[in-house]
Each structure stands twice: as structure tokens, then as C-alpha cells.
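Reopening this one. Same input as before:
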Amino acid sequence: MILVAQVSDTHFDLKPRNVERAERVMAYLADLRRRPDAILVTGDVTDSGKPDQYAEARIALQADIPVYALPGNHDDRGAFREVLLGLPPSTEPINHAHRIGPLTVVMLDSSIPGEPGGHLTDETYDWLRAVLAEAPADDPILLALHHPPTSPCRCGAPDTASRRRPPR
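Same output, byte for byte:
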């Protein structure tokens, strides 16, 4: 059986309390008798997307198991890419997929730069379709994203932003 842990909204802000909280969570996960096979960090890694906040997160979220992260609405894609992923900065969505045994973990970037809400773009849906087409048919797939797939805030109103063209 695959065990995956999820951590979200760490909001690293260069204040000790968030580092201490993250370190306690990481220590707890490391001490479990059945340790997770991976840790998913599902957005709002930082409070305001500054490079030094990502440097703080990179240190606090270290583990001897894979840690996969995606951005949320408080994150900056350029700094996220550069500091956390070691890639050139870019404003393109940060989507990635990983195999953990028979499980395909798909990390979907639902953040929209400069917006508090989010949804999956057409580009992300196209990428997701390609990933799903390559995944073994009988293997499980886990989709992770920061924003809920439908908005809990509209109270009965149609939620067209988060229900944009679902994958076929």
C-alpha cells in the first residue's frame, strides 16, 4: 500500500512560528512507524512569494523521502521555480507528475498570478490529458491541487471558473 502525506498552506514568512510548525510536522512524519512514501505540499508554500521565504521553506521541508510541491495563490511561480525547483524562473504553470510504485501523482497548478482564487487553465487540462493517456490503465491516479475543484464560496451560484472544460 502506498502512503502519501499532504501538507498545505505553510505560509513561510521568515517568522519562527511557521518554521517551527513545519519542522514539527516533518519530524512527526519521519517518526511514524509506517512512514509516507512521499509528501505533497499543495500550495501557499510562502506568505508572499519572496525568494528568501522559499529558501526558508526549502530547508524546513527537507526529508529523506520525496517531497513534491505546487504553488498556491500566495506563491510566485518565478521564485518558486528558481529557489524550490532549481529551474529558470518563468510564469508558466508548474505542473508535474511522479510515479510512486503503481501510483501516478499528478501535481496541478491551479494558481492564477495576481489572483486570490484559482482554476485549471486550458494548457493544464491539455497537459493533464497527456499524462492520463500515458498512465497505466489499471493503476491509481492521485490529483493534487491547491484550490478546490469547485468553489465552496458561491453558495448555489454557477461556478464557471473552476469548472472550465474538464478532461475527457
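So the earlier flakiness isn't reproducible anymore. For the record, The chain has one domain: 4-145.
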